[in-house]
Amino acid sequence: TEPEDPTPRPHWKPEKDMPRYAIQAHNEMLQQTPPVLPQPSRSKSRSPDHSDNSDNENGRPKKCFSELHNRITLEYSGLHKQRLSFNPTLPDVLKGLCVAEPENRGTEAKCDQDELKQQFPHTYGAPIVHLVPNKGTMQTVRFGGKMVVGVVFSGGPAPGGHNVVCGLLDFVLNRNAESKIIGFLGGPLGLMEGRYIEVTPEIVKDFRNQGGFHMLGTGRDKIESPEHFKKAAATVQRCGLSGLVVIGGDDSNTNAAVLAEYFQANRVAVNVCGVPKTIDGDLRTEQVEISFGFDTATRQYSLLAASVALDATSAKRSYHFVKLMGRNASHITLEVALQIRPNMAIIGEEVLQKNATLIDVVNQIADMVVERAAHKKYYGVVLLPEGLIEFTVDMKVLISELNKLVGAEATGGGQEPPAKKAKTTKHDPQIIAEKLSEKSRTTFLQLPRDIQEQLLVDRDPHGNVHVSRIDTERLVSQMVEAELAVRKAKGQYNAKFLAINHFFGYEGRCTLPTNFDCNYCYALGYTAANLLEQGCTGMLAFIRGLTESPSKWECSGMPLTSLMNIEERKGKKVPVIQKQLVDLDGKIFNSFKMQRPKWIVDDMYRNPGPIQYYGPLADEISHSLALEQSEE
Predict the structure, then answer these.
(1) How confident is the model over 242-257, as pLDDT tens digits?
(2) Model-level pTM?
(3) Which residues are catalytic?
């Protein structure tokens, strides 16, 4: 028998149907002494769905095998298996040794420069760098060294994320066979609490070109307090990281920028790089042509919305109101509209520019219904952005007033206990309406009764309205129906109106990625690893020339601080990466604006069909990307 090991070991047993790599990692852990990490504090405010993962006796991080088992026990379909064998095309510049060549001048944020300089003294103002072939004219001392790179998914999933990790792993192993990728489990919380696995070729072979973030899991926790930063720094140091890659959207990459600054200020020798992820498409700049996941998600939504449109024209008896994901910007709605040509698509940014009210939007849709009825068409399709309500001026004012009136009662108003006050008025819309301003009262009373009650009851911990939970498609369709009833009574409309509501959101987040997103994400992983190898920090990996063949793509890095501004969040002024809204003077919107008058009466529905992975249509790009990068 082997001599007894005095080191305490966890007594986990791999389950028979656990993924192979989890069993292997489990067995390896029992044979090796893991690094000792500081035991995470047991905060009472911790979310209930995150359990403490540290060993009570020695502070070792648990490997969370049961968590992995629950996430990853999947059976692959025939198409899944075929996608595993797809080989992404790598840009030519990444196929050999390359160097990060800086531009001649530094960068500046578009606004709030002085405040940002004060908050990011170590990372603000760095130049954009471009990866170019190394011709021996620059120092190459960094090449070939062992790299230990951490990676974390942050925020909602987006198709292609696994290929970013694959690109990272393939790069570091090609440079040095002893290099490692450390994957943090469950998002930023896993980074703070030291929950991780080593991502190996055996692991990633089952995730290449696959949708979802289930290899590691994701989360929406933010690294924002001094305690959070200390925990993150302790984790990366104990793991011996030389670099950290944050895969996320605007808020997640804000976290990446703040982490990079904190590490520099506290002499933590870990470089940080962000990767632009969001299906919403609002992480877009002159340099960042598109965020990954947008192409796949909008194709999935277009397939669903086109099917609904064909159902409408087949049955010829109902209007389909389709809400599409995108609370802060309408990029998804705009792309899907260009793909399927609905009878009407409401763009939130245009509503905001016109200072329009919700009633204006309702009347616009009702006018379309009446016009189609005059042509004996009693059916149609209307696309709505998820965040429509927050673009309308009347609902903005109403919600603000309700937050002050009902919010004070929901939080106790500093006087009575919340439960006692809540019973008196918050469930009675009539009493609340009497306390509103005249305009807000009119808006409130025009809302359907169930929406009124939702605005008064469904509130967040701060007493504010949960705007994201409002069924916008149901609200709008019911108000259109009410408006048509008024017109019918006046003899202005004489037909039946039947509405069917849909919300397409989660259906697009974990779809098998398109060839474009597979290539794009793999190249982003390679680019991020290159930037880290070159000593760059506080950077966002980006690629240009995306309308060209992937072999011709240009790979670069830009300072995250150049994308930031100062905004008020929870009563405090904080640096954040600014969301990019639809450009109403841009090529994409202008193309939509020119086409939409024809769609109102004529049935010009376009069916793009399911995502193509093979054949002549497999490498198509989105309308938005093609139009934005076109010369005309």
Answers:
(1) 999 999 999 999 999 9
(2) 0.85
(3) 280
